[in-house]
Write a structure and sequence with these properties.
The chain is of the alpha/beta class. It has helices at about 40-45, 65, 70-80, 95-105, 160-165, 170-175, 215-220, 235-245, 250-260, 275-285, and strands at about 5-10, 25-30, 30-35, 55-60, 85-90, 115, 125, 130-135, 145-150, 180-185, 185-190, 205, 225-230, 260-265, 290, 295-300, 310. Helix 4 links the parallel strand 5 (about 85-90) and strand 6 (about 115). It binds zinc ion (2 copies). One zinc ion binds near residues 61, 63, 138 and 209.
Length: about 325
């Protein structure tokens, strides 16, 4: 099953000609989740996957650079007669923000809108994965990162061995694979010996705006992809600390401690091009990328290889990809 992260806006605080404000779309199979919706996000969607009727938006915190794209996008959905309901998740204060600011801008909507304030670590269970917000340190106020974690998958099914034991191909194969004991030629056949060890699911962690924090290290433990902000270079670490942001080196140290496979730095300030942040981070943690707007990272299951940085086509690009694109 496909798991992909699309970087719609990789800038922070203010947009530049190259970088839009924060927004990331995670696609898993047929599920699409938008994380943050900075000003201009609907246009970034139009430039990539189209302005799809997203069912869910997750807000990390309520700074303007992360939310000001919401009113315009909701209005566009309304103008074209959207009927499908929309849910917006976020920290405590989401309702108040809607009543005071976003709601009056948007006005009446022809579709149902549900606002859901999440508690830290409140797991949103899906069929075979979960989305869990975790608290991060971004100065005052509630700020969340989000972890998207797949449940472990059943081990590999040894068809030849099952047939040898006299299990009839068909529904019994499925039962055996799911952990049930089924009849065989000389008695019951249990999954042990036919089904291998449970295989890990994938994990993507989006830390939002934050100083490096222990909660992120824990949430990102062993993640396939950590998307972390890098608002400053090391020389500006004082300002990073004062404003609840991270340096590239700080994000890289965190990624190394968490043992992630790939670190993607975002929330790139208009002060930087990106190359200096990447160089600083790679001194500490070499599997680091600084994606540009509309780049993607595809995340295969562990046994099929490492995450792949797919750069947006049609732009002059610099720097090597971290891993070859798989065929
Ligand atoms: Zn921000
Ligand atoms: Zn912020």
């Amino acid at each position: 099953m496909e798991l992909e992260v699309l970087f719609l806006g990789t800038g922070g605080s203010a947009p530049t000609a190259r970088r839009g404000l924060p927004a990331i779309m995670v696609t898993r199979g047929g599920d699409r989740m938008l994380f943050d919706c900075g000003e201009g996000t609907q246009r970034q969607l139009l430039r990539s996957v189209g302005l799809v009727d997203l069912p869910e938006i997750y807000v990390t915190h309520f700074h303007g650079d992360h939310i000001l794209g919401i009113p315009g996008m909701l209005k566009s959905f309304a103008l074209r007669g959207r009927e499908a309901p929309l849910r917006i998740y976020g920290p405590r204060g989401l309702d108040a923000l809607w009543r005071a600011a976003l709601g009056p801008l948007v006005g009446r909507l022809p579709y149902q809108l549900e606002l859901i304030e999440l508690e830290p670590n409140e797991e949103l269970g899906r069929d075979d994965y979960a989305i869990t917000p975790f608290r991060v340190d971004h100065g005052g106020g509630d700020a969340y990162g989000y972890a998207i974690v797949e449940r472990p998958r059943p081990g590999r099914f040894d068809e030849a061995r099952a047939i040898e034991l006299g299990v009839a191909p068909g529904p019994d194969f499925g039962r055996l694979h799911r952990g049930e004991t089924v009849p065989g030629a000389t008695g019951p056949v249990s999954p042990a010996g036919v089904v291998g060890a449970e295989r890990p699911g994938r994990k993507v962690v989006l830390a939002g705006d934050c100083a490096p924090s222990e909660s992120t290290v824990i949430a990102a433990d062993g993640a396939d992809l950590l998307v972390h902000e890098a608002s400053f270079i090391r020389e500006e670490s004082g300002r990073a600390g004062e404003t609840g942001h991270s340096t590239a080196a700080g994000a890289a140290e965190l990624a190394a401690r968490a043992g992630v496979k790939l670190l993607a730095l975002v929330h790139i300030s208009p002060r930087y091009g990106g190359g200096e942040l990447r160089a600083e981070a790679r001194e500490v943690f070499s599997p680091t990328i600084v994606p540009r707007d509309l780049d993607r990272v595809q995340i295969p299951f562990a046994e099929r290889g490492d995450p792949v940085h797919v750069k947006v086509e049609g732009e002059a690009r610099e720097g090597p990809t971290v891993a070859p694109r798989l065929g």
